[in-house]
Amino acid sequence: MAAIGGFARAVAPDLPGYGRSERPARFDWSVPGYAAFIGRLVDQLGLERVHLVLHDFGGPWGLSWAAAHPQRVASVVLVNTGLLPDYRWHTFARIWRTPLLGELFQLMSTPAVLRRALNAQNPRPLPEAFIERISGYADWAHRQAVLRLYRATPDLGALVEPLTRALGPLRLPALVLWGEADPYLPLRYAQAQSVCFDAEVVPLPGCGHWPMVDDPAGFIARVLPFLRRQLRVGGAAPA
């Protein structure tokens, strides 16, 4: 954020249910619901045209908003996310999507359990500060938001066709960064982004689902030059 702020406005919102944001009692937890929220946020901030940097569920949310507002998107950075043809839910997702089992699983997810689970599926131990930050946000309302999101999302693979139809003709510049050891969104999806975008695909060895955490210096070294190039090409400096 600080590095990008040297040449463009950078905004990193916590969306409803996550981070420091509110946990609303009523919200549309579906992908279209979050896309609509992003639209309201972009309008409220007065942003005319944006470069999207997306990770995990941020991909479906951000790309769904972009498909409805293609003239307002300049480029995308896709970090272990994007178009997911024939996607099948990972183990945790299947648990969260199952009534009662998901609630029981969330009740048992103490900080110690979370630490073991994340590190067991990551190629290197995650920084303790990162895990503590996740644990600090994971109150019961947040855990319910996770369940509601996954239960409101029937099929991520079904988004591929409408997103490609809306965004494919634009051939938006895209930087695709993908941790090679991601157990939730396998590396095979990285090349699928070239169907829709003018994509530079960069597999990241030794990284898992959070390459920005596994190798922050390497991550920044790839993202900053891409964004600088897009700003030079575009002339004006969108957020």
Secondary structure layout plus pairing:
Layout: H1 31-44, E1 50-55, H2 58-68, E2 73-79, H3 91-96, H4 101-108, H5 111-120, H6 128-137, H7 140-151, H8 160-167, E3 173-179, E4 198-204, H9 211-214, H10 216-234
Parallel strand pairs: 1-2, 2-3, 3-4
Helix pairs in contact: 1-2, 2-8, 4-7, 5-6
How is the biggest beta sheet arranged? 4 strands, parallel
Give the strand content. 5-15%
Quaternary state of the chains = single chain
Compute the number of helices. 10
Gyration radius from CA atoms, angstroms = 17 Å
- Structural class assignment: alpha/beta
Q: How many angstroms separate the termini?
A: 11 Å
How does this model look, in words?
The protein is of the alpha/beta class. The protein is built from 10 helices and 4 strands; from the N terminus they run H-E-H-E-H-H-H-H-H-H-E-E-H-H. Strands 1-2-3-4 form a 4-stranded parallel beta sheet, with helices on both faces.
Throw out a few tags for this protein.
239 residues; alpha/beta
Summed up:
With 239 residues, this protein is an alpha/beta fold.
